[in-house]
Amino acid sequence: MNAPQNREEALAAQPFDPTDERTLGLIRAHLELTDPVPVDLTERVKFAMTVANLEAEIAHLMNDSALSGATRTTEYDRATTVTFESAGLSIMVTLEPIGNDLTRVRGWVTAPGADVELRERSRTQEATSDDEGRFVFERVEHGTVHLVIRRTDEPGARPVITPGIEI
Fold first, then answer.
1. CA pair distance 134, 104, nearest whole angstrom
2. 85 in helix, strand or coil?
3. From 2.40.128.630, 2.40.110.10, 3.30.200.20, 2.60.40.10, which CATH number describes the 41-70+77-166 domain?
4. Residues 60-99: pLDDT tens digits?
5. Residues 123, 61: contact at Cβ < 8 Å?
6. Please, what sign has the CA dihedral across residues 58, 39, 69, 104?
7. Domain ranges of the chain
């Protein structure tokens, strides 16, 4: 190993000490106040990694024309029905609060017999859509969830994954 060439290199070669710890602590506290980590960053990273691993097609949230002219306020109503669409699939879900921080998720997909997976923070639930494309998840915890739909009527079709839904 070569000897340090200048003052900065000499300082960098020194062991970590209490002054370094205090300085880094002050920087961390400043950044937490001025530029905090987004609350949903972990969920967004997990979503991106899931999509990359699945090589999935992403369903896009459909725009509700009734909401497009709304003005911004501090109060809002939670959406109870959300619709997603991808190139070959439409998905609609209805959220029904059932108390105790639980929600029933009823859905419909344009692929009867599709395997539907609901990914929560700490668990995964699975269902199969019936002959009319309906499916239900009876007890979903509050938080961000994603749906992954795998078509059984088209062998080799890529799965479709929705963006996160905050329940």
1. 13
2. strand
3. 2.60.40.10
4. 666 544 344 444 444 445 668 888 988 888 999 999 999 8
5. no
6. positive
7. 41-70+77-166
